[in-house]
């Protein structure tokens, strides 16, 4: 199965309830009704981070916030802390992602470096379908952030 990435749009009111511990974050993300609103980015999370930041684990704001950034909440989703972005941070991410073209991402796609950095899940990144896999999920992430920004939503980020 492995580690998969998830993004989950939420209202600022819901986020404030989570920060104040009035709402259980893990109960919320594992609730069947809520879970259907999350975006599952499968195992593409690390490759997307790499393409946006040129690093396995580091990066600059706002692009660092796309996958691995945010402020930690107390609860764990299984593979690390659940993190959040405020609605303002979501808007910054959406704006930055809107400026990046598929061509720019393709130029950043470096299978040898990705293998050296052990970008999860450490596949043979040279296979042509790997680029398509990453690009398809990248587009979903970009569109999900754009929709969240339009709705003034906050975002939960976590690995499971």
TrEMBL record:
Q: What is this protein called?
A: DUF1877 domain-containing protein
- Which SUPFAM superfamilies does this entry report, sorted A to Z? Hypothetical protein yfbM
- Its source organism is Paenibacillus dendritiformis C454
| Recorded superkingdom | Bacteria
One of this protein's Pfam families, by short name? DUF1877
InterPro entries, A to Z: DUF1877, YfbM-like_sf
């Amino acid at each position: 199965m492995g580690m998969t990435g998830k993004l989950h749009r939420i209202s600022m009111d819901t986020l404030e309830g989570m920060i104040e511990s009035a709402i259980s974050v893990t109960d919320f993300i594992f609730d069947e009704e809520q879970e259907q609103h999350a975006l599952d980015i499968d195992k593409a999370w690390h490759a997307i981070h790499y393409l946006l930041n040129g690093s396995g684990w580091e990066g600059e704001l706002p692009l660092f916030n796309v996958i691995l950034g945010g402020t930690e909440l107390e609860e764990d989703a299984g593979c690390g802390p659940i993190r959040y972005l405020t609605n303002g941070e979501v808007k910054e991410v959406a704006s930055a992602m809107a400026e990046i073209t598929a061509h720019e991402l393709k130029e950043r796609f470096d299978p040898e470096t990705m293998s050296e950095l052990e970008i999860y899940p450490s596949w043979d990144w040279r296979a042509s379908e790997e680029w398509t896999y990453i690009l398809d999920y990248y587009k979903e992430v970009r569109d999900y952030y754009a929709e969240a920004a339009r709705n003034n939503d906050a975002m939960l980020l976590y690995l499971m």
